[in-house]
């Protein structure tokens, strides 16, 4: 009898040990770090008929054995900075897509009020971005986020408030921010030269997407909307500086920095979204984000978030039918280097710009800025 009891006890111990070993091995497999360079090993098939939970789409350095959506104790939230060198470059559209990631908290243009107050310097900008990313709203960004009429600019969820002060509190925002797995900031007021300090900061754990667009498209769209008043040279100097600084940042932080072309996003939104998902650590595009993409890029009349809707294919070269002779000559004169660096052809006159048989893309242009292109080619 005693031998039988000892045998059963030994069997239970061995079984428990084997189960523990299997779990440890499974956790190690699921905790491998995703790298953009590994895109060839991360190709997958989207299964539209399969209902997957949010937990299945936690970044690949997360354990699938946790009992809730909360991150493991030793796991840091991922912060995402989406910046663009000028307005009308598609950053609101891409920002809305990023905000649809499961477990994300979205800040929309948190630096805008600081710029209006003429307080925005590199030092203040970096300090404010870190305050947002760490959910510790220090001054002056705290005042900027809570200023009258700033809330729907800075926090998209504020549009749901029944009155200006009904649901906004800096402390409540901080608490909500800390509960999320992703903090996403969309801004056209941060410069690429500000990034190294933030990218080096282990507390911030930052990923950066620098969205660029053909300045002929941005400036034409901005003037039509009444946004742009300065000369094209001003905007293109900023864009040129960001491209130059971006090459240095890319060399220093290749796994944390991506330059993305708006025109490529328009041409293949799902393909680029797949690459962005890998860049941020997802195995595949979360269903919620995929549904949002379909809702915002089709004309099916579905409801959509934040007033963002795009016929992305038509947006790609829409400016070519809207630009006038003076604009095409002026913009190409002062922005020629930017246009070429991004990988587009110069047209030289309005007739060529209108002729859609002439390609926008210069296929012979070097693409060292756009490292995602190799991944898109593999996925497709």
Radius of gyration: 24 Å
User: How confident is the prediction overall: mean pLDDT?
Assistant: 76
Largest sheet: 5 strands, parallel
The counted number of beta strands is: 5
The computed structural class is alpha/beta
- Say what the CATH topology of the domain at 78-316 is: Rossmann fold
Gross morphology is globular
What is the count of DSSP helices, taking H or I runs of 4+ residues? 18
How would you characterize this protein structure?
This protein is an alpha/beta fold. Helix 10 (232-252) packs parallel to helix 16. The protein has a domain at 78-316: Rossmann fold. Residues 18-74 and 299-307 have low confidence and may be disordered. The protein is 47% helix and 8% strand. It has a five-stranded parallel β-sheet with strand order 2-3-1-4-5, sandwiched between helices. The chain has helices at 2-30, 91-99, 112-116, 122-133, 141-146, 151-154, 170-178, 195-200, 215-224, 232-252, 262-267, 269-280, 287-297, 312-315, 319-322, 325-342, 350-354, 373-379; strands spanning 78-84, 104-108, 182-187, 206-212, 257-261.
In short:
With 380 residues, the chain is of the alpha/beta class.
List the helices and strands and how they pair.
Blueprint lengths: L1 H29 L47 E7 L6 H9 L4 E5 L3 H5 L5 H12 L7 H6 L4 H4 L15 H9 L3 E6 L7 H6 L5 E7 L2 H10 L7 H21 L4 E5 H6 L1 H12 L6 H11 L14 H4 L3 H4 L2 H18 L7 H5 L18 H7 L1
Parallel strand pairs: 1-3, 1-4, 2-3, 4-5
């Amino acid at each position: 009898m005693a031998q039988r009891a000892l045998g059963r006890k030994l069997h239970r111990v061995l079984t428990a040990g084997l189960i523990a070993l299997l779990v440890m091995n499974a956790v190690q497999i699921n905790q491998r770090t995703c790298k953009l360079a590994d895109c060839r090993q991360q190709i997958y098939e989207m299964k539209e008929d399969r209902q997957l939970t949010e937990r299945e789409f936690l970044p690949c350095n997360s354990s699938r054995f946790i009992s809730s959506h909360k991150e493991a104790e030793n796991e840091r939230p991922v912060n995402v900075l989406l910046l663009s060198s000028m307005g009308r470059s598609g950053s609101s559209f891409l920002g809305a897509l990023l905000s649809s990631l499961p477990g994300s908290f979205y800040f929309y243009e948190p630096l805008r009020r600081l710029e209006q107050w003429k307080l925005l310097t590199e030092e203040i900008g970096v300090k404010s971005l870190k305050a947002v990313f760490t959910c510790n709203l220090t001054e002056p960004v705290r005042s900027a986020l809570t200023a009258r009429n700033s809330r729907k600019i800075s926090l998209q969820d504020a549009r749901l408030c029944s009155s200006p002060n009904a649901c906004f509190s800096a402390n409540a925002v901080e608490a909500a921010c800390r509960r999320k797995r992703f903090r996403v900031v969309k801004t056209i007021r941060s410069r690429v030269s500000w990034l190294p300090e933030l990218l080096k900061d282990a507390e911030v754990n930052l990923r950066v997407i620098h969205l660029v667009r053909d300045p002929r498209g941005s400036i034409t769209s901005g003037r039509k909307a009444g946004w742009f008043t300065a000369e094209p040279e001003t905007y293109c100097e900023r864009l040129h500086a960001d491209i130059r600084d971006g090459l240095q940042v890319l060399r220093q932080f290749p796994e944390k920095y991506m330059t993305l072309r708006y025109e490529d996003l328009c041409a293949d939104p799902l393909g680029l979204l797949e690459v962005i998902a890998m860049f941020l650590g997802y195995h595949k595009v979360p269903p919620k984000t995929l549904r949002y993409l379909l809702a915002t890029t089709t004309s099916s009349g579905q409801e959509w978030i934040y007033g963002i809707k795009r016929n992305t294919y038509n947006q790609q070269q829409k400016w070519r039918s809207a630009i006038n002779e003076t604009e095409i000559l002026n913009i190409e004169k002062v922005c020629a280097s930017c246009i070429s660096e991004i990988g587009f052809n110069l047209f030289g006159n309005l007739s060529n710009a209108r002729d859609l048989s002439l390609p926008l893309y210069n296929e012979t242009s070097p693409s060292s800025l756009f490292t995602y292109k190799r991944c898109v080619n593999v996925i497709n």
